[in-house]
User: Fold this.
Amino acid sequence: MLEIYYGTARGKTSLCVGAAVRAALREKNVLLVSFDPVESDHKKLFDAIPHITALTLPASADVRAFFDHAARMAMSFRYTVLVFDGVFDVLAEDQLSAAEVYEFLSNAPDSIEIICTGAAIPKKFFPLADNTVEMKKTQA
Assistant:
């Protein structure tokens, strides 16, 4: 199953964190991959929760090598939930190939629940998704 959270509003990472914690509480093994080095605030939380493995992109890291490493870990069949938080943002910045991410998502086993986020997503990803959630800023 593939879920995509996208849009201009804040809160996409919070949705991912909540999904990861809920899955871990159900004793599912979660791989949470953050492509935003700033989002490492959650590391202490994840270290304290069994069943969650968190990877955060180091500030000067090669994004493609980081993605490849995370994808290999996900395909180890040790994880039942995979979160790619901010993956569509690094696509938008041309730090990672959309074709590579598309190929991974297209060929991922059905046994892995995948959640991906980003401000905007390429249209070709919509048909892959089982659920999409667009988050918009609203006027109060």
Q: What stands out?
A: The chain has one domain: 9-131. The domain at 9-131 is CATH 3.40.50.300 (Rossmann fold). The chain is about 35% helix and 25% strand.
